[in-house]
Design a protein that fits this description.
Oligomer: heterotrimer
Mean pLDDT of chain C: 93
CATH architecture of chain C: Alpha-Beta Complex
Largest interface: B-C, 51 and 68 residues
Largest sheet of chain A: 10 strands, mixed
Keywords (chain B): ATP-binding, Ligase, Nucleotide-binding, Protein biosynthesis, Transferase
Low-confidence stretches of chain A: none
Number of strands of chain A: 17
Helix content of chain A: 40-55%
Shape of chain A: elongated
Family (chain B): Belongs to the GatC family.
CATH superfamily of chain C: Amidase signature (AS) domain
Order of helices and strands of chain C: HHEHEHEHEHEEHEHEHHHHEHHEEHH
Number of strands of chain C: 11
Low-confidence stretches of chain C: 473-480
CATH topology of chain C: Amidase signature (AS) enzymes
Radius of gyration of chain C: 21 Å
Distance between the termini of chain A: 77 Å
Structural class of chain C: alpha/beta
Number of domains of chain A: 3
Strand content of chain A: 15-25%
Chains: A alpha+beta, B mainly alpha, C alpha/beta
Radius of gyration of chain A: 30 Å
InterPro entries (chain B): Asp/Glu-ADT_sf_sub_c (IPR036113), GatC (IPR003837)
Number of domains of chain C: 1
Organism (chain B): Eiseniibacteriota bacterium
Strand content of chain C: 5-15%
Structural class of chain A: alpha+beta
Catalytic activity (chain B): L-glutamyl-tRNA(Gln) + L-glutamine + ATP + H2O = L-glutaminyl-tRNA(Gln) + L-glutamate + ADP + phosphate + H(+); L-aspartyl-tRNA(Asn) + L-glutamine + ATP + H2O = L-asparaginyl-tRNA(Asn) + L-glutamate + ADP + phosphate + 2 H(+)
Helix content of chain C: 25-40%
Shape of chain C: globular
Number of helices of chain A: 16
């Protein structure tokens, strides 16, 4: 039987604020256990929350860039459930009056522009971390560290708009790019900065009704989302095809073993008893704040991609790669801004610069410090004008990324200015012709391509410094003279 | 309005409280009496009354400045009933995971 | 009767004498403990005390308007480095808070000495201080009777003279009612004027730290030192608190509401007599009586028991045996929670947690919690309308004088109804002041309550002062310290 999957996502984005959501503890990752805690995030008796303005600001940035409606008076609520890494045994979140509603995330999927609609984005606090016994024979205890408790999260809930696991993967990748683009999160899924749960149900294709859904937790990588959903869709399809019924359940995805486990504990029989958080006044976001945030929003990545295609004439492929990160695309724009042709700049950034970034494990920020966009523009200009050869340009890049320094200085120091005087090059040309009688004969026999080989030989002899144009002219002249 | 034994047990589970067998009936009776009493609110005309969720106050937001007043892990763990080095210890969460 | 030169003196007098070097801070603190040697064994107002700790605190008290003045604070205010903070509950047995509540910080900064932590109903749930894991506190005027609650410990201690000042918490009357039963002043300030940071929460939208003192002037002083915004409590008001320095200015030109319909039935004659006397006295002092009917208190009680228990059910979820407090031996987390909580909480706390859990649970939220929050809006409007006609209202504190131990512990509803006149102020977020009015024929303290609009503390204190001197300023004068007798042991 054919089935159509209906999938909705709940994504949690951990914000990169300096302090926690409701207290002044540092929100950093990696401190020793239970050292970034205070009475508030440890849930000590008598402690009270106070909202971190930066977390709200981050939510506004994301909400505005996604076209959400911003609620002027939103309300924090308590979600009540017991869990050992939940200090107060309730989570401060937002419920019926979230900060942002509606909106959509544009995503490019297989060269097609798609847009996945959102239900809401709200602000909440993270829990601590439990470390459960891993192997049989381990002492049957869980260890709890509250350093993460109270770190700000944005929860983003989509409409059930996805039909394919790959769409979900692309959405998550797009969300991660955007969160980093806005610099509101480090977006590192391995560190849990971006986490995802999914609701999935099956129905006959074209049906308007919805089947019984299950919830999958722990889809914490892009691959995991795709694989976990693929597994669950297959599981549900098998149940339905065998004439069975889907039972509402919470499943846990184990990425290491690519397995789903159904959770049937009393702990998961939830009645969250939401009610407005009485310790916090309603959150007022006035029009002035919204406009101020709107005014400093960067151009979103999808708009940039379109602009690169429509106005700079780049292939969509280039635009997508250049807009993978804001640093890269800002860098590219700066190279263009310094007078370089867009396609040329794109080629240099995508091939040469990224090659060094990847090979050296540099961040793009570090790379931009070692080779400022202006310097790259100069280098490209020098290569285009023939002042240096492209081989020399690569040499310059090598040195600049290795040791730093100004490309112009490297050119001067290494004497890389292309040798274009015939008097200087003619001896080399003659040497090459003398040493390569075979190719010379082939050229004479009409095989034009051999000329390239001969040019290469001269270049080699010159240490890559000979201006290829001049070499070619000299070769032709000499070959003609020899005839 | 009355609360029966099952209801008492259900809300006791939610609240993580154990009501001894003999006390369930008494608790059901007492809670039912309180509910009967609060039913008086049905006499009030509340049509134009928005719910008060808290006494309004101007929202005061905090600047994103970490400060040094956090507890040392020693202070944080001082009252812990069970600990192992710098971790709080709890018995395992039984999740009855059925693969 | 144990007496010494300093016992029972107002805080202002003690502070002035310490400042002038007439007595040391240690002597000021120990004068209260001399009284305690007579009273404390029977009254049992104190939950935690430590002679070494208070002596050290007295020695190191910084200069300030309360230098050397002993203060007893309720056991639900967090204090670091001196006493446990246990809320009268087994579930916090031995717990020591690692931080000071904001009001405690301000007290210490003013030079006050924490002389003890006062007994209370467990987690402030009760009106008699009988529901404490340390056993009941008794009324110093009659040991067979309750001191009121839930802040019965500090109220009784201030009454017998352990300290001139006390701090309690008032969620539905827990400062005003014990103040009335013990014959001292009890102020519940406007919601948001005193920081709740470090006050162990019961009903967050209703809780306020409240003040006890034997003298109106001391209430004013304490209020002026503690009120004001706190960056750690987002529900505190940002504006500066009202100025109470004119507490002794008299009531000429003020008007007070007289909602007589509220005490036509179910209120003891002694309570009504106190109201009549207070009204006459305020009129003699130049205030004008405005009679009108007011919404009966049963609605407020019904609203209160839904809102307060709902918030409490969530506030008390953190007591689970994971991070602090005793833990019942368990092999899984579920039984850790259930056993630690079931062994740690007393019956009244469990009852309220269950009620609150029910009021918030799926399917009942609209019928109970949401309806109560609508009713709350209605009640607040009722007060607003009343204060359009008068500056403050004269009300009973409780329908009865101090009742007998055990009289209401078996009937939760009867206990809840003893808050019928105090709960409204908490629902509306407005201030209320319990003013002692001498003793009834039975020898029990009488009192009346003054309730005013938000930030009307200056008005309430002026009226409270007028009643303290019974409107006869000329006879009693400014040097007047007290006119009602010290509690008698029976």
């Amino acid at each position: 039987m054919a089935h159509e999957a209906v999938i909705g996502l709940e994504c949690h984005i951990q914000l990169a604020t300096r302090s926690k959501m409701f207290c002044e503890c540092p929100a950093e990752f990696g401190a020793s256990p239970n050292s970034n805690v205070c009475p508030v995030c440890l849930g000590l008796p008598g402690a009270l929350p106070v909202v971190n303005r930066a977390a709200i600001d981050a939510a506004l940035q994301l909400g505005l860039v996604l076209g959400c409606t911003i609620r002027e008076a939103s309300v924090f609520a308590r979600k009540n459930y017991f869990y050992p890494d939940m200090p107060k045994n309730y989570q401060i979140t937002q419920y019926d009056r979230p900060l942002c509603e509606g909106g959509a995330l544009p995503v490019r999927l297989c060269e097609t522009a798609r847009s996945f609609p959102l239900i809401r984005i709200h602000v909440e606090e993270d829990t601590g971390k439990s470390f459960h016994p891993e192997r049989t024979g381990d002492r049957p205890v869980s260890r709890v560290d509250f350093n993460r408790a109270g770190v700000p999260l944005l929860e983003l809930v989509t409409e059930p708009a996805f039909r394919q696991p790959e769409e979900c993967g692309a959405f998550l990748a797009g969300l991660r790019r955007l969160a980093r683009w806005l610099k509101i999160s480090d977006g590192d899924m391995e560190k849990g900065h971006l986490r995802c749960d999914a609701n999935v149900s099956l129905r006959p294709p074209g049906s308007a009704s919805l089947g019984t859904k299950t919830e999958i937790k722990n889809l914490n990588s892009i691959k995991g989302v795709e694989k976990g959903l693929t597994a669950e869709i297959a599981r549900q399809a098998a149940v339905l095809d065998a004439g069975g019924r889907i039972e509402q359940a919470t499943l846990l995805y184990d990425a290491d073993h690519d397995k789903l486990a159904v959770m049937r504990s009393k702990e998961y029989a939830h009645d969250y008893r939401y009610f407005p958080e009485p310790d916090l006044p309603q959150l007022t976001v006035d029009a002035a704040w919204v406009e101020e945030v709107r005014g400093r929003l960067p151009e979103p990545p999808w708009t940039r991609e379109d602009r690169y295609v429509d106005h700079l004439g780049l292939p969509a492929y280039d635009a997508a790669i250049l807009c993978e990160t804001r640093e890269r695309s800002d860098y590219f724009e700066a190279v263009v801004g310094a007078g370089t042709d867009a396609k040329r700049a794109s080629n240099w950034v995508m091939t040469e610069v990224l090659r060094h970034v990847n090979a050296r494990g540099l961040s793009e920020r570090e790379a931009a410090l070692r080779l400022p966009a202006k310097s790259l523009a100069v280098l490209i200009g020098a290569t285009e004008s023939g002042r240096i050869t492209s081989a020399s340009a690569k040499e310059v890049l090598e040195e600049v990324f290795e040791k730093g320094g100004d490309p112009e200085a490297v050119i001067a120091a290494r004497g890389l200015v292309a040798r274009s005087s015939p008097e200087e090059l003619l001896p080399l040309v003659r040497e090459v012709l003398a040493e390569n009688p075979g190719p010379v004969a082939q050229f004479r026999g009409g095989k034009q391509a051999t000329l390239g080989f001969l040019v290469g030989q001269v270049m080699k002899k010159s240490g890559g410094r000979a201006a290829p144009q001049v070499v070619q002219e000299l070769l032709r002249a000499e070959l003609g003279a020899l005839r | 309005m009355s609360i029966d034994r099952d209801e008492v047990r259900r809300i006791a589970d939610l609240a993580r409280l154990e009501i001894a067998g003999g006390d369930v009936d008494r608790m059901a009776k007492e809670l039912s009496a309180v509910l009967d009493f609060v039913a008086a609110l049905n006499e009030l005309d509340l049509a134009d009354c928005e719910p008060t969720s808290m006494v309004p106050a101007a929202a005061s937001l905090r600047d994103d400045e970490p400060d040094g007043r956090r507890l040392t892990s020693e202070a944080a763990l001082a009252a812990a009933p069970e600990r192992e080095r710098d971790f709080f210890l709890v018995p395992p969460v039984v999740e009855n995971v059925n693969p | 009767m144990s007496a010494n030169r300093w016992w029972g003196r107002p805080a202002t007098t003690l502070a002035a004498c310490v400042a002038r070097g007439e007595l040391s801070a240690e002597q000021a603190v120990e004068s209260g403990w001399e009284a305690a040697s007579t009273w404390e064994g029977d009254v049992h107002a104190v939950a935690h005390a430590d002679a070494t700790v208070r002596a050290r605190a007295a020695r190191t008290a910084p200069p300030g308007p309360l230098r050397g003045v002993p203060v007893i604070v309720k056991d639900n205010l967090c204090t670091a480095g001196d006493y446990p903070t246990t809320c009268g509950s087994r579930i916090l047995a031995g717990y020591r808070a690692p931080y000071d509540a904001t009001v405690i910080r301000r007290l210490r900064a003013a030079g006050a000495v924490l002389t003890a932590k006062g007994n209370m109903d467990e987690f402030a749930m009760g009106s008699s201080t009988e529901f404490s894991c340390y056993g009941p506190t008794r009324n110093p005027y009659d040991l067979t009777r309750v001191p009121g609650g839930s802040s019965g410990g500090p109220a009784a201690a201030v009454a017998y003279g352990l300290a001139p000042l006390g701090l309690g918490s008032d969620t539905g009357g827990s400062v005003r009612q014990p103040a009335a039963f013990c014959g001292v002043f009890g102020l519940k300030p406007t919601y948001g004027r005193l920081s709740r940071y470090g006050l162990v929460a019961f009903g967050s939208s209703l809780d306020q730290v409240g003040l006890f003192a034997r003298h109106a002037g001391d209430v004013a002083l304490l209020y002026s030192l503690l009120a004001g915004p706190d960056l750690r409590d987002a529900t505190t008001r940002a504006s500066p608190p009202p100025d109470v320095s004119a507490w002794d200015r008299g009531v000429k030109g003020l008007s007070f509401g007289w909602p007589e319909n509220l005490w036509r039935e179910g209120v003891e004659p002694e309570v009504v007599a106190a109201l009549e006397e207070a009204a006459a006295c305020l009129e003699r002092a130049g205030a004008r009586r405005v009679a009108f009917d007011f919404l009966p208190g049963t609605y407020a009680v019904a609203t209160y028991y839904l809102v307060a228990t709902a918030e409490a059910s969530s506030n008390l979820a953190r007591f689970d045996g994971v991070r602090y407090g005793p833990r019942a031996p368990s092999t899984d987390v579920w039984s850790l929670y259930v056993r630690s909580r079931s062994q740690g909480f007393g019956p009244e706390v469990k009852r309220r947690i269950l009620l609150g859990t029910y009021a918030l649970s799926a399917g009942y939220y609209d019928a109970f919690y949401l309806k109560a929050q609508r009713a709350r809006t209605r009640i607040r409007r009722e007060y607003q309308a009343a204060f359009g006609r008068c500056d403050f209202m004269l009300l009973p504190v409780a329908p009865t004088l101090a009742f007998r131990l055990g009289e209401k512990t078996t009937d939760p509803l009867a206990m809840y109804l003893s808050d019928i006149f105090t709960i409204g102020a908490n629902l509306a977020g407005i201030p209320g002041l319990a003013v002692p009015l001498g003793l009834a024929g039975s020898g029990l303290p009488r009192a009346v309550q003054l309730v005013g609009p938000e930030d009307s503390e200056p008005t309430l204190l002026r009226a409270g002062r007028a009643l303290e001197v019974r409107g006869e300023v000329a006879r009693l004068g400014r040097e007047h310290e007290t006119e009602f007798p010290w509690p008698m042991k029976r």
